[in-house]
Specification:
The protein is of the alpha/beta class. It has a single domain, classed as 3-Layer(aba) Sandwich (Rossmann fold). It has a seven-stranded mixed β-sheet, with helices on both faces. The longest helix has 19 residues. The termini are far apart.
């Protein structure tokens, strides 16, 4: 089966701009419904696709975390270059950490993090995500053969040493959270791994924002934008953005 690769998207419908950032091994489909929800309510929305993401595992392992971060910056700059002065950022998982990093380095109207990693994580756990991605991709494309495609064999084919740089990026961002003063809304799923719930607490206690809050979705797991409570998540983000004082 030939898989259709996801693409970046940009919908200009209002003066309020939102940058949407997907997760590690994810793609723009993770935030597409959220993007439509916001654009239907007069928000301009842009979601870049990180380099190496959205295609086969061979493309992913040939890219690196710095290039993924650069894709996020390019998305922000795209909105800036189109004349949007106020840009809010919302990200899922790694996109959440990228949102916080943007808040540390660029002017941001507000930040929404969803299941963002903010605590130390081993390179092995990140590498395991690459293996899962490779196996799922082979299954979706109809090329998976359980007699030869053992997890051990696939792990050898998709080894990615640069993942240590991703952990460094997460740690560096977490260490600088106190410079963030933009409003921050932190979302987490109660059914997600405890690691991400603890990360939410760390983010809340570390940012220097006068406006900051945490919301837990009881029946949701890791990818909040695609989970059972996704409509509630979209509504929560929309109301948070609506509560801000935007230049009109």
């Amino acid at each position: 089966m030939k898989l259709i690769a996801p693409k970046p998207f940009l919908t200009e419908t209002g003066n309020r701009a939102v940058l949407l950032l997907h997760g590690f091994t994810g793609n723009t489909n993770d935030v597409k419904r959220l993007g439509k929800y916001l654009s239907d309510r007069n928000y301009t929305v842009h979601a870049p696709l990180y380099k190496g993401h959205g295609g086969g595992p061979d493309q992913l392992i040939q890219s690196n975390p710095i290039e993924w971060w650069n894709s996020a910056i390019e998305g922000y700059d795209e909105l800036r270059n189109r004349g949007y002065e106020e840009i809010a950022v919302a990200g899922v998982s790694l996109g959440g950490i990228f949102s916080l990093k943007l808040g540390e380095e660029r002017p941001t109207k507000a930040i929404v993090t969803m299941s963002a990693p903010a605590l130390a994580k081993t390179a092995d756990s990140l590498q395991s995500r690459i293996v899962d991605y490779a196996i799922n991709y082979k299954k979706l494309s109809g090329t998976y053969d359980e007699t030869i495609d053992s997890r051990t064999k696939i792990a050898e084919l998709v080894e990615m040493p640069s993942l240590i740089n991703l952990q460094s990026l997460i740690n560096e961002t977490s260490n600088n959270l106190n410079v963030i003063q933009s409003p921050v809304h932190i979302l987490r799923g109660f059914e997600d791994d405890e690691y991400y719930c603890e990360s939410a607490d760390l983010i809340y206690s570390s940012v220097n924002s006068r406006i900051k809050s945490v919301k837990t979705f009881i029946n949701s797991g890791h990818i909040l934008t695609l989970g059972k409570e996704r409509e509630l998540v979209y509504e929560e983000i929309f109301h948070f953005f609506e509560s801000l004082k935007w230049k009109e």
